[in-house]
Amino acid sequence: MMSDRxxxxxxxxxxxxxxxxxxxFYWAMRLMEPARRDALFAVYxxxxxxxxxxxxxxxxxxxxxxxxxxxxxxxxxxxxxAESTLERALARAVARFDxxxxxxxxxxxxxxxxxxxxxVAPDMDLLDRYCDRVASAVGRLCVRVFxxxxxxxxxxxxHLGRALQLTNILRDVEEDAARGRLYLPADLLAARGLAGLPxxxxxxxxxLAAAKRDLATTVAAEFAAARRALAACDSxxxxxxxxxxxxxxxxxxxxxxxxxxxxxxxxxxxxxxxxEKLAIALRxxxxxxxWRASM
Length: 295
Hints:
The chain is mainly α. The protein folds into two domains: 1-116, Farnesyl Diphosphate Synthase, CATH 1.10.600; 118-295, Farnesyl Diphosphate Synthase. It has helices at 2-20, 26-30, 34-55, 60-78, 85-97, 101-115, 124-146, 150-171, 173-178, 186-191, 199-203, 208-232, 239-257, 267-287. Helix 7 (124-146) packs across helix 8 (150-171) and helix 8 runs parallel beside helix 13 (239-257).
């Protein structure tokens, strides 16, 4: 009984952290039945912690040390030595849904890539590895929690992870360039005469839109493959994945419609986007078991 009370206290504490973090997909995760919901919150909280380390203002050595400590914490989780609230919540998720330690480690590797020297114009192999570590690995953890069939779930995580991360890359070129980063692949930049230019110069070059359009072809193909993979997931509750896909597809469509010009930002703009996400989540929530028919 005491253990049950402690488990509930841990779950409430992690859920409170997720909600306080302001995730726009908090309500999508809330759709799940309690055990799956608590596991998703734990996975999200882990991802948020390591991402905050990578994107923080600490010196690179301090970031690497903090990420190395998370590797030690994973060892504690998988060896039955979890101590903190989040570690215990992750340990329960690992035990209940057979989460693969290699996927957690891949997420940390992705954060180490961001915490090190800035990535600038990677080749496609490096970009693929980056997308796998920071996005698809998270997807692999989530589809296990969703209860997806293994093969279809793996395909969904691969394609949807790439689609989401490449959409973010297209959206954030200018913001990333201000931090010395440039995730657009070198071959696409070279094809548009942008090879070798500094990130901030590329971010304001009129040829950038053409390079973004080239990458958008890959993004569209990844969304199509993700949709097919989602349709093949004939078991489990994948509504959070469906919500994320719908939200990001709309985001991608808007970017294409304005030919990848930066989107104006305002308080009203942010509120409208949050309302859109909530509307999509509500639509799928009300569908219940029939949610697939609406996709």
